[in-house]
Amino acid sequence: MRQDPERRYPKLSEAAFSYPAIDNHAHPLLREEHRDRFPFEGLVSEAQGDALIQDAIHTVACKRATAQIRRLLNLDERASWDDLKLARASSNYVGLCKMCFEPARIQCILIDDGLGGSDDFAENYTWHDQFTNSPTRRIVRVEVVAEGILKDIFQLNLTAKAALNAFTASLTKSLKESAEDSNVVGFKSIVCYRTGLNVAIVSCTASLESSLVDLFKRYKEEGRLRLAHKALNDLVVRIAVEVASEHDIPVQFHTGLGDNDITLSLSSPAEMQPLIKAYPKTKFVLLHSSYPYTREAGYLTAVYSNVYLDFSLIFPLVSGAGQRSIIQQVLELSPTNKILWSSDGHWWPESFYLGSYQARQGMYEVLKTMVDGEELSEADAVTIVQNALFHNSNRVYGLNLPSP
C-alpha cells in the first residue's frame, strides 16, 4: 500500500497503512469453480440487473477501483474494466486471493456465512484461515436460522398457537447453542432488508399467529420461504438480542446502504432507538456507517453505551471524496473507542483488498487534516487508527487476540 509520500507524519502513516486489522464483518469468498458465478460489477455497486451491468462501471468509485486493482495486478495503466476482468479470470485463484490479502494486513476475519448463495457457491469460513494470522470466526445470521426452523415446523401438523410456541422455543435454543460455540462471536440481523429497522418492542400474539398462517400458505404455494412478516421478524430480533445479552456477544444490524430490496427510509438506525433503549445490556453494532444516515448512527453511539458503529461497504462503493466525508461524519460525534472497521468483503478477494486499502487511505487523509488543524496530536491520531482497525473489535467481540 502507498504510504504518505511526504512522510510528514510517519507514525500516523505507519499505523494507517501497516497496522494489522480485525475485519469485524465480512462474507465468504466464492469457491474457485464458481469464481465467475456473479457479475464482477457487484464489487463496486449494490445495484442489480441493468443498473448494475450498464451503470455501475460509470461511477467515480468504479473508475478509482479499476485503477487500484490495475496496479495490484501489475496491468498496463490503459487497461480497461473488461481487461481487468479477463486478467483476474485467467489468474491462479489462490494466488489471486493471496495477492489481495497480503497488503490488506487483515489478521482475523469475522464471517457472516448466511449471505444468500454461500452454501452453494462459497468456501467454508475456516478455508479463509490460510490468508490470516488468526483463525476466522463466525457471525450467525439469525433470519437464516429462523427460516430453517420454520421449514421444519411447517412439516408438522400443528395449530398456529402450537407452531408459534415451537418456533419461539426452537429459535431460542438454537441461538443459545450458537452463542455458546467458541467459533461464534456474534449474531447478525438483516431485518432492515425484510421489514425495516423500526422493530417493535412487543408483538400481538394474534398478529404472530396470523403471520405464521400466511407464511405457511405462501411456502406451500411457492415452494420457498422468506421471512418477511413484520410481527415475526420483530420477534426474531427480540429473541436474538435477548440471547446475545445473556451471553455477552454483539448483534450486528445492517443499516443504511443496501440493494433495492430495502426501504431506504426504514434503514436509518434512528428507527432502532426504542429497541436500543429496551435492551441496554445488548451490544448493538450498526453496520456500513449507516450511510447515508451516518450522523444518526454517530448520535446513537454517543448517547448509548451499548451502541457501536462499523464503517464499511462505503469502501469501495462510494467515491474517495465521499468516503472522506463519511469518515469525518463518523468522527464528528462517535467516541473513537466505539468505531470498528470492516471490509464487508464478499465473493471476490479484491473486495477485501479495496475494503482495507481505501479505508486506510481515507483514515490517514482525514486524520492528517485534523493533525494539521491542531485538533489532534499525531499520537492521538495513531491511537484512533489502531483502535478502529484492531483494538475496538478485539474488545467488543471478546476475541482476546494479542496486541500487534
From TrEMBL:
<dbReference type="GO" id="GO:0016787">
    <property type="term" value="F:hydrolase activity"/>
</dbReference>
<protein>
    <recommendedName>
        <fullName>Amidohydrolase-related domain-containing protein</fullName>
    </recommendedName>
</protein>
<feature type="domain" description="Amidohydrolase-related">
    <location>
        <begin position="232"/>
        <end position="375"/>
    </location>
</feature>
<dbReference type="InterPro" id="IPR006680">
    <property type="entry name" value="Amidohydro-rel"/>
</dbReference>
<dbReference type="InterPro" id="IPR032466">
    <property type="entry name" value="Metal_Hydrolase"/>
</dbReference>
<dbReference type="Pfam" id="PF04909">
    <property type="entry name" value="Amidohydro_2"/>
</dbReference>
